[in-house]
Amino acid sequence: MSWEQLLMRLDQEAELVSRRALFFHQAQGKLRRVLLEHRDCSLLPLIRSAVNEGYQEAVLSTLDQVASVAADPGVAARALACIADVLGCMAKGDGGLRSGPAANQEWAPAFQQLERGNIAEGVKELAKERREWLGRPALLVRAARHYEGAEQILIRQAVMSACRFISVGQEEPPPIGHWVLVECPARIDVSGGWSDTPPITYEHGGAVVDVAILVDGRRPIGARARRIAEPELRLVSASGMLEGEVVLELVCQDLEDLQDYCQPHAPGALLKAAFICTQIVTLASQKPLRTQLLECSGGGFEVHSWSSLPHGSGLGTSSILAGAVMAALYRAAGKSTNAESLIHAVLHLEQVLTTGGGWQDQVGGLVPGIKIGRSKAQLPLKVEVEQIPVLEGFPQTLNKHLLLIYTGKTRLARNMLQDVLRNWYARLPAIVQNADALVSNAEQCAQAFRQGNLPLLGECLTRYWQQKKCMAPGCEPLAVRRMMDALQPYVYGQSLAGAGGGGFLYILTKEPSQKDVIQQILAKTEGLGNFSIHTVEVDTAGFSLQLVGSNPKARGDTGSGGHNRSREGLQQGPGLCALPGNVQTAADSSQPPTLA
């Protein structure tokens, strides 16, 4: 028989059904290979095709299997993210937004298994509950949210692998009532940001160039801690002083008072999480808080934190503040650590706090000067920092060409983080290419610093801003675009700090000492709203840690936020020599420190 005769007798419907079944059988094998072999291949087209052709159950079953057998939580997290994409596609654009709460109690048993590290059992519980949420689009979208919540648990566990690089020694604690004072610079990210964010940082590898900076001549971030006789925790935090000072005071006397440590907007959440991550307090213990404090420390603790930067500034405030608080608590509790340990400890804290940050902020604020941080595409997650050598006098030159402009708009990076992670897990080709470009641009930026080449540095900065917009569309408000357009002829490069969306704009001017000129230009530009211009200095000293006695001097008593505090009569604190900042002990005075 001829091929034409064969075709006439072929059951074409059955043939198409057979071909479709074969295609999706092969697709299931592709799903396994891509996920288990860590391939940067987008599965979203395959997922959409499976849903359109009615093969979603087979795909879901395969993804369940991959998540259950994955050797590390990173692979399992990506598999759960793919399941969320399947459920989102099944909703066909209805049912509301994917971003939202994932706190329905029906999913709690599955979440609890994942939190305990029982991934296979947790995935089984998720699949069991999922079957009850397939009836209509609104339920499918809510199920997708809960899968993304489960994914975050596994990301947290992957990032927790960084804890093995936290080294803590024992020291003689300061006497009860004596303060440990830590003051930190802010940071600007000059290139590579987003490549430090989990899971990108341990699946792709990251590189970020950061500069530690003084803002208007001051270290804007700090914390102090001391032991007190009463077995309780006294928490005081002050922030947003550019917008008007906001002070929060809390007293925790029971473990129940610390239970909201994982809710970022809860009062004192960062300070509470710091006590847990430094292991001063154990929430799971059967012993009450009072007993724990008396047995381990001979009393309680008082800790104060402050920032003179507004919320959502983009200058790394929360992560640097976390590092300052943990450094102060460690020393007050009679423990010693170093900068490398603090960098990884902040990664741990931010996962506990559920803000899910990367490592660039604490690298920028805890390590002095100009540096590049790197992480490899592997677990455990380890961050390595290289100081970038620059020509003599270049930091002073940079000071004259850098300016900060507060845009008057604030944002929470977490709002952008959800979309970025969703696109990364989908391995959209543009996002994968952009991640490659972020790392390569960071290496070129480091070379521009080594050469002292301001025009090349400006090119890297401008390219970096375009990469940020690719990674997080919508991070450039209209008023900021107007501001940047007005400044374009006068700058080598410019970018919003951090994730963008608001906060501070930093610019590298073509001419030195241009603050007044920039002020005049922006004053004539319509539609900008309230803005302010601030000077920048490269902080080459790093953060400082001081033992300041029971009645320390007021912060800023030298007129420079403590940065130029006299070292006459100061002695190096014991056991903290590995810290890159200044470790000092100051004599008592009659005035307590202020938060301003």
UniProtKB/TrEMBL annotation:
Biased composition (Polar residues): 582-596
Residue span(s) of domain GHMP kinase N-terminal: 293-363
Function, in words: Takes part in the salvage pathway for reutilization of fucose from the degradation of oligosaccharides.
Catalytic reaction annotation: L-fucose + ATP = beta-L-fucose 1-phosphate + ADP + H(+)
Keyword terms of this UniProt record: ATP-binding, Kinase, Nucleotide-binding, Transferase
Biological processes annotated in GO: GDP-L-fucose salvage
Name listed for the protein in its UniProt record: L-fucose kinase
InterPro entries noted in UniProt: GHMP_Kinase-Related, GHMP_kinase_C_dom, GHMP_kinase_C_sf, GHMP_kinase_N_dom, Ribosomal_Su5_D2-typ_SF
Keyword Kinase: yes
GHMP kinase C-terminal domain mapped to chain residues: 446-524
Enzyme Commission number, as recorded: 2.7.1.52
Residue segments, region Disordered: 549-596
SUPFAM superfamilies: GHMP Kinase, C-terminal domain, Ribosomal protein S5 domain 2-like
Lineage: superkingdom: Eukaryota
UniProt-recorded Gene Ontology molecular function terms: ATP binding; fucokinase activity
Annotated family: Belongs to the GHMP kinase family.
The keyword Transferase appears for this protein: yes
Stretches that traverse the bilayer: none
Source organism per UniProt: Chelonia mydas
Taxonomy of the source species: Eukaryota, Metazoa, Chordata, Craniata, Vertebrata
